[in-house]
Amino acid sequence: ATEVVRGSTVFTTHTPVEAGIERFPKDMMEHYFTSFVKKTGMSWSQFWELGRTEGGEEKSFFMTNLAFRTAHKSNAVSHVHEEVSKRMWYDVWKGFNISDIPIGHITNGIHTMSYIGERMKALFDTYLGPEWRNNITDPEVWEKVPDIPDSLLWDTRYELKQKLLNFLREYLSTHWLKYGYTKTWREEFFSKINPAALMIGFARRFAPYKRADMLFYDLDRLDRILNNPTRPVHIIFAGKAHPNDEMGKGIIKRVIDVCRDERFRGKIFFIEDYNIDVARRLVQGVDVWLNTPRRPYEASGTSGQKVVANGVLNVSISDGWWCEGFDGTNGWTIGPVVKGYSPERMNVDEDDGQSLYAVLENSVIPTFYNREISGLPEKWISMIKKSIQTLMPKFSTERMLLEYYHTMYLPTAEREHELYMSSHKMARELADWKRKIPTRFSSLRLLDVSIEGIHGDTVFVDQPLTVNARIDPGKVEPGEILVELVIGKKDGYEFASTPDCVPLHVTEKTPDGILIYSTEYIVKYNGPYLYGVRVLPYHKNLAAKQETGLILWA
Question: Considering the domain 444-554, what is its CATH architecture?
């Protein structure tokens, strides 16, 4: 039954945040699942193994472990999230290299037509042709974006901003009545709203790792930024916290307190009762979209994808989808630019806060306010066009679903069909083999490995390495094992990149039954290398070589 379930299951892991990883204590699992496990025919230990993790929480049942162990294919939701997930869930495939962990990625995308403003749709219809609506993933469609006149694009952006400000005035007037703010106070507040100001938007779930209050790290510096008489800036916040998230609710309170600070009255706004209507107005009307997660906890993020079609530029921490989206011309990155896994840094909040202020002061605000002879911010408009050109075809649900279909759902459906057509005989045979192989595999011995052509851990480019391994197969048939050389450039105690995995083949069998496996490898780069030879159980019906969890290294 486990093989049948595995053959028809795809699992997508969605968050590296601890609060989103469900686990249950052993006594609770026993209370609710003892009778269920008996009905399945499994022993309790077999069932527990599906959700077990090593280390300090062996008495907890992890739902994520269960999903990984019973899925044909698994994926994360961005490239960097794949790298993070492989390290998080390494124990499920203990003994394998990080690069071997069978978690891929399909980066999240958004339904573009649900968030793009009507004026932008009309502009695209005119200059890209109406066929753009059905060809969002085609890069050629977006090659026409530079043809849009700067003045028309800027006028459209101004109209969208005006719609947002009109909504903001009406919304705040209605809500402030119930809080007892006087008419005089409201009029004074609204008089400070400048429709020509740079408008920054931040709207999402107020989880602590998203750091909605990063802008408040240095309020005096923020005061100078927002209240510059020649380059004013406004900020609009919106969002909700989980009812049980006290830290998240505390961040919302901080935002509201700062909104009420006399220095920021009419400069910072918080919209209550966040919903999809508010979200659409914000992603269409602001000039800049701010994203400040604590790396590496942003699995993907999609709010910044929703602003692109509306000509809004992203200012974001390098995490989630932005690691793939940012190219240096289509927005700004706060802090270091990261393309893959990057460990958490010390003092990260302080460093990122300082970087955010610097990006705003030295790049974002000057670019927005710098006007050419035409009276237009031509560099800003050029960045808008670059953002639309480079990001629109990459981050749509159409692209995302096609990737899921071809790389996840279709192969899994084919596997399920294969199992079904054999009346699940294949599943029963594979399950029986998996039950027996651990005992037999434990009798195998990797006697020794010899590598000719390597000096210490250093090799030279184009130099051939000859690798031999002597193996006593014990009770395992030669056809039931894979022998592989794993070799790659060294970075500390890890591979610098995905290593090469080269199969060894039987070249000799000694009279006493010892098998000699051999291969030759041509070195690609000079310098220090990591390498090893490993043996894994093999069955023709395994979906992945990591499935058994058994591995022997030398």
Answer: Sandwich (2.60)
